TrEMBL record:
Coiled-coil intervals, chain numbering: none
Gene Ontology MF, one: phosphatidylinositol transfer activity
Name of the protein: Cytoplasmic phosphatidylinositol transfer protein 1
Record key words, sorted: Lipid transport, Lipid-binding, Transport
Biological source species: Clupea harengus
Protein's gene: LOC105900233
Lineage: Eukaryota, Metazoa, Chordata, Craniata, Vertebrata
Length: 273
């Protein structure tokens, strides 16, 4: 098991990011879904928890075979997806990832949002108890992003919001920016397979960090698209984008039904795996 705590600051308030997060996830999922890969929304509905109260539950299938490293692709099926289950009790959320093909693999993420610059060192005292963990600050402006994800329009070193007048964010922006908030994420990765555990857990954390960096960058880069939305507006947008995204993923599924892979094994519909 490898446990890390990520802290990602944003030039937003926690209340603003409630809208921005939902908008970003829906738009990002749609953009990343192509060629039969991406995110298929299976379930998205209100959920009530006796401890955390009213929230939203979502279940998704994340298709990502081609995004795996070569050593991992050698041991997984051509048709491969991870199940994501999320309970959103904003400003507290729980997200879990599992894979039926890899029963000893799991990711557990607990997230809390606060209006500060990542200065709360005790935010996960109850959840993490006495477990040792590395604290990783992620700078959405100046941390290097993988080249395949880079877009000039999302480069926050040069971005200024027309509607909020926030930006351009200079070096050391977290010490001077107002408003400012922080996403605190406690991430546990488990892959209990002898000989592969350390390598896989370290690789998964690297992927998670890249995804967190990209997602939070986009949330602010797209702020002028969502800042005027209400919660009802963004839920309707979320619904529309989920439908469009499912169509993109499923169209490729139908086109690959009963096709044959290079090793001669018949490939069936992803929905049946």
């Amino acid at each position: 098991m490898l446990l890390k705590e990520y802290r990602i600051c944003m030039p937003l308030t926690v209340e603003e990011y409630r809208i921005g997060q939902l908008y970003m996830i829906s738009k990002h999922s749609h953009e990343q879904s192509d060629r039969g890969e991406g995110v298929e929304v299976v379930q998205n509905e209100p959920f009530e928890d006796p401890t955390h109260g009213q929230g939203q539950f979502t279940e998704k299938r994340v298709y990502l075979s081609s995004k795996l490293p070569s050593w991992a692709r050698a041991v997984v099926p051509n048709i491969f997806y991870v199940t994501e289950k999320a309970w959103n009790y904003y400003p507290y959320t729980i997200t879990e990832y599992t894979c039926s093909f890899l029963p000893k693999f799991s990711i557990h993420i607990e997230t809390k949002y606060e209006d500060n610059k990542g200065s709360n060192d005790h935010i996960f005292d109850i959840e993490a108890k006495d477990q040792e963990r590395e604290v990783c600050f992620v700078d959405i402006v100046y941390d290097e992003i993988p080249e395949r994800y880079y877009k000039e329009s999302e480069d926050l070193r040069y971005f200024r919001s027309d509607k909020t007048s926030r930006g351009v964010l200079q070096e050391g922006w977290r010490d001077t920016q107002e408003p400012i908030m922080c996403s605190y994420k406690l991430v546990t990765v488990k892959f209990e397979v002898w000989g592969l555990q350390t390598r896989v857990e370290q690789f998964v954390h690297k992927v998670i960090r890249d995804v967190l960096l990209l997602g939070h960058r986009q949330a602010f880069a797209w702020v002028d698209e969502w800042i005027d939305m209400t919660l009802e507006d963004v839920r309707e947008y979320e619904k529309q984008m989920h439908e469009k995204t499912n169509i993109k993923v499923c169209l490729e599924e139908h086109s690959t039904n009963s096709s044959t892979s290079e090793d001669g094994i018949e490939i069936h519909d992803k929905a049946s795996t």
